[in-house]
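Tip: read the tokens left to right.
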């Protein structure tokens, strides 16, 4: 994934504590000599290259510092008590989860709403659940999500479905290009009950993954075109089946909320994939196989 930021990042960074040390290391960047005479460069292509290279350099240094910090022992208490999904991970997977969680906690802007003080327990619990989804992926930490907004309980939103207009109680939201919004009570309840197929943190961060292409429509990206084509067919068929089941009142493995649209179908399927992998593989084998390919993990081995 390519991430571009303005050169203002450097100027802001250099104005903080440790500016002299930062500048000394910055000055030794291998790209700098080629643009030293006339920095920043005026050529738009060169400017883009410099911008990308320098951001990557700063980011790697920042992440290296975070990873160098030891894993706080108190955080194990939060994982063991709250994040039941991680209890059967291998030692290598535990290490990977810890690394991703440290970065996630440090990198995100955490804000409590309605007077809530966001505690370390809340950050670690939410971050670890989201990072379970990233165990098969390297060097990505939901970079498209900068802020996590946490309500103490369900929150009200004005909603207009084209027919009625009124307040709805919600446990989570994901805004395209914006924050993830969560109810702490529901986030905690979902992660402590690891096999009911309902997890609001996984659900909302599935939307964040869905939005990486700039649109939340359930159209996720695979490494190969055949898988992408198969995904379209499998989701179209499964979604229509779920819509029909909801209309008839027939019980299904996937929550009926997934019949809202294909974006919700993907989010609901992702919840079930991580919390009820055996049932999903049995009932929707093709869907399960594609999700294994997409997330690059097989939750069956954690059961």
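Filled-in amino acids:
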């Amino acid at each position: 994934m390519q991430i571009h930021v303005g050169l203002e990042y450097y100027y802001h960074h250099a104005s903080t504590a440790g500016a002299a040390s930062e500048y000394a290391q910055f000055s030794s960047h291998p790209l700098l000599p080629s643009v030293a005479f006339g920095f920043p460069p005026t050529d738009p292509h060169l400017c883009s290259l410099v911008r990308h290279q320098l951001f990557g350099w700063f980011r790697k240094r920042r992440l290296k510092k975070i990873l160098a910090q030891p894993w706080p022992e108190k955080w194990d208490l939060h994982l063991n008590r709250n994040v039941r999904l991680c209890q059967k991970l291998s030692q290598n997977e535990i290490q990977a989860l810890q690394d991703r969680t440290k970065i996630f906690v440090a990198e995100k802007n955490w804000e409590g709403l309605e007077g809530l003080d966001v505690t370390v327990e809340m950050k670690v619990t939410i971050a670890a659940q989201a990072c379970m989804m990233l165990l098969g992926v390297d060097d990505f930490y939901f970079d498209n999500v900068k802020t996590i907004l946490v309500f103490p309980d369900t929150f009200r939103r004005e909603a207009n479905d084209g027919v009625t207009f009124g307040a709805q109680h919600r446990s989570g939201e994901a805004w395209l290009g914006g924050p993830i919004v969560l109810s702490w009570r529901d986030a905690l309840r979902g992660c402590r009950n690891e096999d009911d197929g309902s997890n609001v943190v996984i659900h909302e961060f599935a939307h964040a993954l869905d939005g990486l292409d700039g649109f939340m429509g359930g159209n996720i990206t695979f490494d190969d075109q055949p898988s992408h084509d198969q995904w379209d067919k499998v989701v179209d068929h499964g979604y229509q089946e779920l819509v029909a089941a909801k209309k008839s009142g027939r019980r299904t493995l996937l929550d009926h909320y997934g019949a809202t649209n294909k974006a919700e179908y993907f989010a609901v399927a992702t919840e079930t994939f991580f919390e009820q992998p055996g049932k999903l593989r049995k009932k929707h084998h093709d869907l399960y196989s594609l999700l294994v390919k997409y997330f690059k993990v097989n939750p069956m081995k954690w059961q």
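The chain has twelve helices and six strands. Confidence is low (pLDDT under 50) at residues 1-38, 162-167.
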